[in-house]
Amino acid sequence: MGHIETIYGCMFAGKTTELIRRVEGKNVLAFKPKLDNRYSTGHIVSHNGETLKAVLIDRAEEIMDHVNGKAEYIAIDEVQFLNSIGSVCRQLANQGYKVVCAGLDLDFRGEPFPPMPYLVAVSHSVTHLRAKCVCCGKPATRTQRLIDGQPAHVDDPVIMVGADDLYEPRCVDCHEVRGVRKKMF
Ligand SMILES: [Zn+2]
Question: What is the predicted pLDDT for the residue at 45?
Answer without folding.
Answer: 85
